[in-house]
Amino acid sequence: MMKVNIDINEDHPEPLITIQTNEWTEELEEIIAIIKGRNRKRLFGIESDQTVLLDPREIEFVYAESRRIFACIGNRKLEIRMKLYEIESILAPYNFMRFSKSVIGNLNHIVSFELSFNGNLCVHFQSGSKEYISRKYVTPIKNRLAMGG
Question: What positions belong to coiled-coil segments (predicted)?
């Protein structure tokens, strides 16, 4: 059971949130996302000359190709007119991690992994799409998944 303690006092110059726990849980991750979400930027994708508001929870991965950035939602590919590192910071609270120099993936959409011959990890998403995780990023992703992230 989670206890909540709120101390409203004019001696506090700004809000400070402290969470004391013995383990990281999905519930805590959701709370943090909500707290950080107040000032979060929105992502817009372009599809068939229409601008579409993107729901980060639906995006499987985002990748760079030929100096353009695309978000994959199922079989749809929508262009995002931002830099990959900007998108990465917006999507981080939604359980996205860097897969390679040109790909950011949603850990919540991964179905399975397979090791490829060059040491990279091949990730299969719910839609059937697949992407590769560079060796440099394999360990941080494995650790995050092991923590329940």
Answer: none
